[in-house]
Amino acid sequence: MGLGAKLRRVRRQAFELADVCWDDIGFGIIPTDYMYVMRCPRDGEFSNGTLEPYGNIELSPSSGVLNYGQGLFEGLKAYRKEDGSILLFRPEENGVRMRMGAERLCMPAPTVEQFVDAIKATVLANKRWVPPPGKGSLYIRPLLMGTGAVLELAPAPEYTFLIYVSPVGNYFKESYRRISSPPIESWVFVHEGLAPINLVIQNDYHRATPGGTGGIKTIGNYASVLKAQSEAKEKGYSDVLYLDSVHKKYLEEVSSCNVFVVKDNTISTPAIRGTILPGITRKSIIDVAVSLGFQVEERLISVEEVLDADEVFCTGTAVVVSPVGSITYHGKRIVFEQMVGDMFIVGYPMEMAELGLCPNNSTLFLQDYKW
Ligand code: COI
Description:
Its EC number is 2.6.1.42. The chain has 10 helices and 19 strands.
């Protein structure tokens, strides 16, 4: 056996893996070993979380979450490094965002410390489900929901914080692998499954309204886009790009991710004004883009502007950084090249640090817990 093969074997033996066909995983639920559960009365505090075997939960038919949608979710990922250790991507940011959403929905929430500890415990308990390097990630789904029984419209009397996980591959199904010439010499471009997506802008449905809950990760925001999304998919599009509901003119976001528009050396993204989810990948990309020397603007972006862009890409935990291949508006299809977004695809989130290509301040996005 050659040295390379021996090394690969040693590395493989360094960590135990679940019996999964790692080359075939997409973005679907794969049940894992454990979930984390922590409960709290309305006026109390969360404490005594436990790891339980992953499985169905018992819920009152009159629970707040089932009847009035009093629920939030988060999404974050754990990645496996070559040496077997596991990285989490900015988990405290999710903890902070969950607390903001909980405040808006009148729910108690775990502290950021409790949140991060619970994430670590859940990932650790399920560590054999973290895919091998380069084969995907472990998607972590924290939920916060009103599980107490309530009939009148009021906050539920009891809350449950639950975390489950699933190994995932690419969110958008079309997958490809290509090597393209880098705009910055010495950068190695290897894309895995990040095919350009085709979006449609339509004005019959809107995702959020001013004063509503578009800026938090409440479950209702996602049920409300299912119809627009499924109509778009029936017509062959990957997803919908929503416009604002007042002027019906300014970009908001895609059903499951934020959007960025590139023109010349300027990268713009819709400003956070209560109707757009403050994405953690969005925030990270802004920081990295600034440190790479791009002009970054958070502002109103009109639909005309996006149609005239050099490049468009989407960001989110699930979609990572997805290049947009085309946008269709009023039956007209505009096709985009991919250049700037590619840089982030290459660099995001681990390879950048590992190849030593990232600007110093972007390394802090990585939390290497060295389990
Ligand atoms: C995520 O990116 O984690 C999301 O919440 C999107 C989800 C709708 C899959």
